[in-house]
């Protein structure tokens, strides 16, 4: 079994060491940095499976680091910060973060969240699939093509950059066209932990997705609000073709 690598970017040595020890105790390989510049070097050299970022780093902030990481990688990014305002969390998610925890935090909860982000079944890099299975993982909605195997979304032939959770959310909804899901169901499916239910996280990720895939985000044709319930992916017979 391949050991997964976690990158911790944290300038507080005590927090960094405690986090590292808990992750290593749970079977992860851990690489650490205490500033943004070293984080990018580690990302390129070690290719971690998940990054844990502090926001208030010396030099580049965690927000800037996240933006730069997103240019070279789609690995899950979990922010760990003393900033508790909702605006800070929304900013982190808008910049490509997948999750946000505030300090002080439970190391056991952090490990659980890390496991949740890494356990989506279609992210298993070691799984070998036959060509017909890869073909079945492709979704086509008019000019939008979603490839569940390569995790690439194209609109009019052009790739659309998505964070890992944005892709997970889009692929799940697109795989169930016409079916309405509550915020809680989506959170449990994509984040994998019912106890971490956070409606705002879903709302922000849907908003970000719409900006990237909708011709007019203010009047979406793909991801539709179901008032008082949640969201569904609109099934349009003239645009939808699930290739098998």
List the helices and strands and how they pair.
Blueprint: E1 5-9, H1 13-25, E2 29-33, H2 36-46, E3 50-53, H3 62-70, E4 77-81, H4 86-94, E5 99-102, H5 107-118, H6 131-136, E6 138-141, E7 144-147, E8 152-155, E9 158-159, H7 164-174, E10 180-182, H8 183-191, H9 199-213, E11 223-226, E12 230-233, E13 240-242
Helix pairs in contact: 1-5, 2-3, 7-8, 7-9, 8-9
Q: What features would you highlight for this structure?
A:
244 residues, globular, 2 domains, alpha/beta, Rossmann fold, 9 helices, Arc Repressor Mutant, subunit A, 13 strands, 5-stranded parallel β-sheet
Unreliable parts: 121-134, 237-244
State the order of secondary-structure elements, H for helix, E for strand. EHEHEHEHEHHEEEEHEHHEEE
Q: Mean pLDDT, as a whole number? A: 84
Count of alpha/pi helices: 9
What percent of residues are in strands? Answer: 15-25%
What distance separates the N and C termini? Answer: 31 Å
Per the CATH scheme, the topology name of the largest domain is Rossmann fold
Looking at CATH, the homologous superfamily of the largest domain is Response regulator
What is the name of the CATH class of the largest domain?
Alpha Beta
Name given to the CATH architecture of the largest domain: 3-Layer(aba) Sandwich
Radius of gyration: 18 Å
Number of domains: 2
- Record the strand order, biggest sheet: 2-1-3-4-5
SSE class = alpha/beta
Domain OmpR/PhoB-type: 136-235
Modified residues (4-aspartylphosphate): 54
Keywords: DNA-binding, Phosphoprotein, Transcription, Transcription regulation, Two-component regulatory system
Pfam families: Response_reg, Trans_reg_C
């Amino acid at each position: 079994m391949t050991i997964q690598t976690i990158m911790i970017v944290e300038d507080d040595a005590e927090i960094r060491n405690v986090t590292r020890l808990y992750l290593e105790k749970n079977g992860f390989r851990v690489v650490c940095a205490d500033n943004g510049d070293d984080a990018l070097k580690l990302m390129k050299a070690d290719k971690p499976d998940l990054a844990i970022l502090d926001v208030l780093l010396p030099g580049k902030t965690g927000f800037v680091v996240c933006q730069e990481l997103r240019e070279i990688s789609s690995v899950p990014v979990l922010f760990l910060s003393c900033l508790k305002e909702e605006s800070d969390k929304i900013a982190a998610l808008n910049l490509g973060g997948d999750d946000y925890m505030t300090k002080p935090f439970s190391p056991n909860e952090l490990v659980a969240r890390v496991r949740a982000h890494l356990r989506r079944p279609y992210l298993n890099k070691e799984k070998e699939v036959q060509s017909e299975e890869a073909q079945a993982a492709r979704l086509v909605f008019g000019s939008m093509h979603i490839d569940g195997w390569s995790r690439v979304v194209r609109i009019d032939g052009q790739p659309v950059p998505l964070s890992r959770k944005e892709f997970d959310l889009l692929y799940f909804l697109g795989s169930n066209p016409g079916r309405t899901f509550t915020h809680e169901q989506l959170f449990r499916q994509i984040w994998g932990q019912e106890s971490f239910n956070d409606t705002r996280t879903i709302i922000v990720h849907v908003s970000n997705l719409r900006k990237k895939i909708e011709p007019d985000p203010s009047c979406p044709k793909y991801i539709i609000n179901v008032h008082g319930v949640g969201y569904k992916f609109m099934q349009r017979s003239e645009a939808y073709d699930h290739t098998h």
